[in-house]
Amino acid sequence: MAVLNILSPQPKTRQLTSASSYFYIHNNDVSKQRTAAVKSKLHSMPSHLKPGSSSSSGSGCSWMKNNSSIQDNIDGQERKEGPLHSALPTTPAQVSSVKDLFEFICSGPLIDKVGLTSEKVAESIDKWILCASHLCRLFQINELYLTEPQKVRIYHYYIPVFLWCEEEIARHNSTFKDKDEIPPLVIGFSAPQGCGKTTLVFALDFLFQITGRKTATISIDDFYLTAENQAKLRESNPGNELLEFRGNAGSHDLSLSVETLTALSKLTKEGTKLKLPRYDKSAYNGRGDRADPSAWPEVEGPLTAVLFEGWMLGFKPVPVEVVKAVDPQLEIINNNLQAYYDSWDKFIKSWIVIKIQDPSCVYQWRLQAEIAMRGDGKAGMSDEEVLDFVSRYLPAYKAYLPTLYSEGPNGSDPDHLLVVEIDEGRNPILGN
């Protein structure tokens, strides 16, 4: 029986010897009320299940412990797995049965939203275990010693979203004929800053890559104006604090966006390549600048999907009186938004909206990110600068999030929209 540390260990255990390690499993069998298919799946030991890294599990305040190397991978868009140590823990772990894993998965808040049932979960339990094993290796955490936050993040969040994306890709591909060149599906991730969307996209990209499908990851940050052009924007809007720094509508190179997204849609054949723009947020003491093209990563076709993320993806212009009531400086931002549908949103066919309960969380999340950046030896903003920086985004959140949450992203199809509501710990909740 395949085993993972999913729930608290029970007292009765027996030892199972495999070729390379010891696992402890429960004496309990899956309830007789389960269907034969469920019992068959839940009692099997997949040959691919191997222990991950033997490093310590995450701390109570974070779902990962010592994730600085992972953040390096994200910032650099590298695709590296965590180390796999040959030595197992000296003391065999007490771990829960796959029955408990099955029940834990089915208790997740996204199961119904992504169209899964307990029967479908049981039929694909091997796939869940394999995906979890890959993610544990990626994030350098031990799959046999997962903390509660780690279990939630992997089984209640990352894997369900991955399976939803797979289904969206299958639907997209089914609309083309056998001999057609199928353009990659562009999946948009609209989520506030600091809520974990970049790490989510990183995890999804890794799962696609390791299962043999090529994807490209881009962010609206990659399309910020250069430092020089940002200075010109600031000078042409004196006194408007919302355009003093990068971030709001008007501070992006929309022609570069269209050029990049159009070129990505054409990566349908082997050998086709494209360099993706990247933005260096640490440049100019945290004010940022476009990275040198020599540092831009290259992607090669054929692409299965493009994972496009950003804090204001899908924002729609609202009546002038609405933005003026929030902040009069938003009026020009609202006008600038008119051009964003044709530059960004119309390319996106499937949407994931990460919904937050209180935009004030953004400050704390952003502060954590800057502290991590400084801890890695990179230039970052001070705590006071973070407060000032985030304050320039909050008016847009107040003006545009209500419409985003009630109507969906600009031009989105409700049949291809997944809304994930998260708490202050960045974990999914049932929501409304």
TrEMBL record:
<dbReference type="InterPro" id="IPR027417">
    <property type="entry name" value="P-loop_NTPase"/>
</dbReference>
<feature type="compositionally biased region" description="Low complexity">
    <location>
        <begin position="52"/>
        <end position="61"/>
    </location>
</feature>
<protein>
    <recommendedName>
        <fullName>D-glycerate 3-kinase, chloroplastic</fullName>
    </recommendedName>
</protein>
<feature type="region of interest" description="Disordered">
    <location>
        <begin position="38"/>
        <end position="61"/>
    </location>
</feature>
